[in-house]
Prior knowledge:
Elements: H1 3-14, E1 21-32, E2 38-44, E3 48-54, E4 59-67, E5 71-79, E6 87-95, E7 99-105, E8 108-115, E9 119-129, E10 141-144, H2 151-177, H3 181-217, E11 220-223, H4 225-248, H5 251-257
Parallel strand pairs: 1-9, 10-11
Antiparallel strand pairs: 2-5, 2-7, 3-6, 4-5, 6-9, 7-8
Helix pairs in contact: 2-3, 3-4
Amino acid sequence: MKPSLMAIIALALAATLPWSNAVEVHVGPLKLSQDESVEVLFNGTKPVFLVLANYSSALFIDSGSSWGERSYGGLRVTLTNRSLGPQHCLVALTSQGPFTVEVFKGADPVATYKCSGNMTLALHIVVEGASLEPRRTFDKSWSLAWRPSWQLIVYAVLAPLFAAAAVLDVRDFKAKRGKVRAEAAAIAIKYALYASIIGAVAIALGSAASAIYGYLTSKTVEVEGGAIMLSITLVGLTGLLYGLARWRGWYDSVDEYE
């Protein structure tokens, strides 16, 4: 049954009251989430008559009303099948006295209609299911690698370079100062500290790049725990030796030489 024919039937039923003038209002389409529904609430000074035309099994309609000194009532429209697209229903309300109709989508107000007596308000309500956002799943697994591999190459490259620089520095210092046993050790410790710091920075950057690459291209993200611990340990040991040498005064002559 088409919506236009549905409206004709509902208005014809409401028009059985001879004093009624009909006004049709389109409401929607209203996108409903999983737990939302559309509520139509009314109240008036005299009995309010409600006529519902519903042609879709995808909608569940629940209504009720009470009459006394004032007339109260309403109905709830719930979408039971979200896969069928937009669904239509028409609600016609009429009363001999003034009445007010409020439409809510869940807890949010949609519209309010204040009607005079002897008229019919026909609400053509269109509802559809709101698109559900896909849930994000985190299927990445993390692992720690405790055996250094490529990181040893960093120290294999840095160690000869800084060792050669330390030897040249010691020879130059010895040529100018003569006997330099403690100072030679201090110079060697200083270059070892430089090498360990540069190696630690290089390993940290390389490990971070490797982890990011694994996160983007693989389901397993491997963190180079062994190499990071090794680099931190070397920096700590050489830093401790440097501090002890500085405390013993081995760098007094070296600082003057530099």
